[in-house]
Amino acid sequence: MKVIVVGAGVVGSLAARELSKYDLDITIIEKNLDIGWGVTKANSAILHAGYDDPVDSNRAKFCAKGNAMYTQLSQELDFEIRRTGSYVVAFSDQEVKTIEELYEQGRINGVPGLEIHDRNTLLEKEPNLNKDVKCGLWAPTAGITEPWMVAIAAVENAVANGVKLVLNEKVVGFEKKGDQIKKVITDKNSYETDLVVNAAGLYADQVALLAGAEYVPLHPRRGEYILLDKKMGSIIKSVIFPTPTKTSKGILVLPTIDGGLLLGPTAVDLQDDMKDHLETTAQGLEQIRNFTRTLVPSLDFSQTVKTFCGLRPESPQKDFFVQASKVVKNFVNLMAMRSPGLTAAPAIAEYVTQEVIQQAMGFKLSKRKDFNPIRRGIKKIVELPLQEWQELVKGDPKAGRLICYCNEVTEAEIVEAIKRGARTLDGVKFRTRAMFGRCQGGFCSIKIMKILERELGKDMSEIVLKSPQSWIVDGKVRE
Amino acid sequence: MKTDVLVIGAGAAGMAAALSAAKNGARVILTDRDERAGGILNQCIHNGFGLHYFKEELTGPEYAERFSTLLENYQITLLTDCHVHNVKPDRKAVLVSPKGVFEVETKSIVYTAGARERPFGTLMIPGDRPSGIFTAGVAQKYMNIENRIIGKRALILGSGDIGMIMARRLTLEGVEVVAVIERLPYSGGLLRNVIQCLEDYNIPLYLSSTVVEVRGKERLEEVVVAQVDNNYRPIPGTERIFKVDTLVLSVGLIPQVELLWGLVQLDPISKGVSCSNIGQSSSEWIFSAGNCTVVYDLVDYVTMEGEKAGKYAAHYAKGERFETGVPIEIGENVGVIFPRRYVSGEDLVLYIRSKKPIEGATLVVGNFERRFEDVMPSEMIRIKIPSQKIMGFERIVVSLKEE
Fold first, then answer.
1. In chain A, N or C: fewer CB atoms in 10 Å?
2. Closest Cα partner for B252 from B380, B131, B115?
């Protein structure tokens, strides 16, 4: 049986990996040049605890469950998570009331370990918080990860289990026979299929429309971020949320996996035709600066490393749209994956495989006996004990050549990233953290261009930053 | 491995320090993470180096070669392609190279790691994140070392020296440079570069202007420039769109000090390693010189300070000890100074940047006074203060008095 998964974001990647446990012929089709480069690439990277989602919503159904699944998943797929815990902090009596409501909602949603901490306990744990804080809702299961690494790890494992990955192809149509899709048509090829899983992120509504299936209209909600240097990384230990409003969780302050500090996101609803508007704005960045200072007054914005913007797929229902199509009999929607989509993704992958595809749609799937759940990440050489590092260099001198000095990434890791599919500067960056540090590639980007050139047998002028036309250098100065 | 002096970074400061330490009888290890010694000089193929030190005009590579060829005549072990992973308070450092990972035990260090360029991300410029945005040094390396053209039409943000030199370089190689944009009401680089790199090539310099947005989904397509008010805030309604595929940033250098975090005191103003006039840091066994202490205009000065730090590091390794010295403090109209402490004995060589342009200013240092016609923040003052003029002071205040 042939399955096409549209989209290699965190939702599609985990769904494909879950499906690879069964005897299926699976192909992932992704329009970008790499895995996890849509919604997955730029969000708050949080494993939410699950107190924030309305009772009986799909968000509530999958969030706490997905959160718990990340422990085993991160071990199997060897990506980093850190259970930092999170605080929702209250500064007024009204906010204290909201926190009590969230506590109650979390209890019903089955969120473990919730506690309301008084001012003293809170300030003891987070001494850099604004001293005017009254109390905070502590959620110990909340944490952080690197969303793109989740997607990359899931796809690598899926591919090891037989899944095919097609990059740089955009789904432009479907060939149908009656109420069944027979072929998925891309801008370059067509693929026969028996089942389509639509995990096309911001564009999932358009893909469903092409298939003639149900959809909820998606519009992008812009979220801008400021990333601060590692020097600022330790001033906050957990994820700090302001008290949420009806529409948003607000602008947060949180540590990142590699030790920096992330501030954001803003929340601005854009027209549905603005799905490529990934630009940051002067107002957005100003808003982040002003607001986060009210949470953590000692933030130092001279330590800014970069600013960026992500778009999240929002629908009028403000909930995940996860179901089999009733009109197209072999089409499944994993749509409107707004927050907490990253957290929910593993639970949704399991749900769609078992309850939707097998039970609701009636596909008979048989488990593969040889499924291997283990994937190993690229070894972070700098973290090795010196003795081991020394041994490694004897066998592979590239393990002793530092390329990225800020994050101490060796040539061996960059070569390995290329072996695993990095074809662009961003492909190397998101797999190794090279160019992610405070010099932003000032010293290493040219070295990485040369390694890409050598390993791929290409000319430097053919190597791009992130998309086909994002060229970096042109011809030669002298022939 | 054991040594007397470990020099970290083989650019202008490091080569000078290594040679001087070796001439003073020390065993020296000189490391650099690049494949050859010379540092950033290797990519600076324009001339203008060496006027003060050699009394002649050299290109960057020529200047570097004057020193690198000397290295082998002395007791200096040059380790290239070698990264210093850490430096510990017990005077050991871990070095990593394709040849191996090893620990070096040293009596003293001369830290000469230079500066890095302020990257685009720190500027918080709104807009897209396309390719085609380069720091000047990266653009220069692509052009001069990798033999690559970086674009067809370029705008340059920041009129620092490297920015202006790149404006000329790009123009000479057929890239159209539409303008240089400077936030300040005056150029950020040397006057000679304004004339030789911009005016001679009819490249307009827009002062009191900045980039307020970059556009381009893939490669850079447009840059929006606006004028700024006295507080450097963009003035609405003054926006101008430049259609360019390349933006080159020359927006400042940041001393690289991260390796020494927790080991030495930093200068809160320059953000570099805070040193006395013999190049000694707050940690008595660590000496430092060059752009990791304060960002210089001229490599000649870097060489001179490197030589001094190397010499005293060698003396320290032999057991000589030095006083901490009296603090040198920033007074009126002074932006950056180096050094920050004065150890009595030698005359004091002082480097000063003014906070603002001043016509007719008197430099006052202890009992020393000197009048200057014009001072500019972009042109660093180097001046020798005779020791008798600053003797007996508990602290030495440096100020530039306006007339």
1. C
2. B115
